Amino acid sequence: xxxGLNPYTDQEYFVSRNIHLTAERLRKTVxxxxxxxxxxxxxxxxxxxxxEIHHIKPVVEGGKSLLTNLAPxxxxxxxxxTYAGAKLIExxx
Length: 93
What we know:
It is a single chain. The protein contains 2 helices and 2 strands; from the N terminus they run H-E-E-H. A two-stranded antiparallel ribbon has the order 1-2. By secondary structure, the chain is an alpha+beta fold. The chain has one domain. It starts with 10 loop residues before the first helix and ends in a 9-residue tail after the last helix.
């Protein structure tokens, strides 16, 4: 947190900070739900490849950013789901 900021006069900063922290907590919870494994290849999320959060039911079809509708995928796995129709494996936890 930046010192000297007032939550009443610097609301934009505090709102954006809350959104960021909430998103990070949600991402971490999704990782835990999937035991830190990709929901397509079951490979570990740790490593050099970036990880994306996938909406199981797409937003354009009414899917929400809820824990039950999110899965962690490697970037290449996410592309294979989006463009090639790869399937997600069952949640482990």
